[in-house]
Amino acid sequence: MKISESNWFEVERYLETDDRCVLPLGSTEQHAYLSLSVDSILSEKVAADAAEPLGVPVFPAVAYGLTPYFMAFPGTVSLKLATYAALLRDILDSLYATGFRRILIVNGHGGNSPVQPVTMEWMEANEGARCRFHDWWRAPQTWACVQEIDPVASHASWMENFPWTRLDGREMPEAQKPFVPFEKLRDRNAAGVRELIGDGNYGGVYQKPEADTDKLWATAVEETRSLLEGDWT
Question: Which Pfam family would be a valid example here (predicted)?
Fold first, then answer.
């Protein structure tokens, strides 16, 4: 049940019997040869695929996040931490005001993790509020599946390359890119990060056979769904 494909009457009827919803978080940032919207596309789709058989509403992905380290790549958009924290709190407050109480945040961008305390503050301030913050790609079962398929995997590599994130007519390198030295990424500005990572892939082959990525996607959807179905008491 996508909010973008629903009207308010339908949401009101849903809230008569259930108070769960899903809020995907994404970003707009470089992903090498893939779409700049990878994180938003993936967080919203894994949320929608997980929630669909349950009939739980999925809100549109928040398309901008925290990604200052990629600002040397044109097309990237980054919010300030205070701006993003305020934005997330406003969204959660709106959901609570209209009747939602149990909210699963499906996060598609690691850089967004600093806003997790906002969810704790929101629960503390609102009676009966529950919020789960789920980094879908590094959840235990999903990450184990990545490691099983190919442990050399990272940002903008095969593990983010699906039919819905790749761009038509763009060729990708066939060689496996070695991991970038992650310890050097922490003390560089955006220009230094771009110099270090080159095309934007942090390490790994750029594309895997569909059988591999289908397996990964099925695992991610199932693991995400389990959080919606799980015990909220």
Answer: Creatininase
In terms of residue numbers, what domain contains 222?
3-229
For the chain, 233 residues long, give each residue's pLDDT as a single digit of tens: 899 999 999 999 999 999 999 999 999 999 999 999 999 999 999 999 999 999 999 999 999 999 999 999 999 999 999 999 999 999 999 999 999 999 999 999 999 999 999 999 999 999 999 999 999 999 999 999 999 999 999 999 999 999 999 999 999 999 999 999 888 888 999 999 999 999 999 999 999 999 999 999 999 999 999 999 988 87
What backbone torsions phi and psi does residue 75 show, to the nearest 5 degrees? Answer: 100, -20
pTM greater than 0.90? yes
Q: Which residues contact 159 (CB under 8 A, 6 or more apart)?
A: 137, 146, 153, 204, 213, 216
Q: Residue 80 sits in a domain of what CATH number?
A: 3.40.50.10310
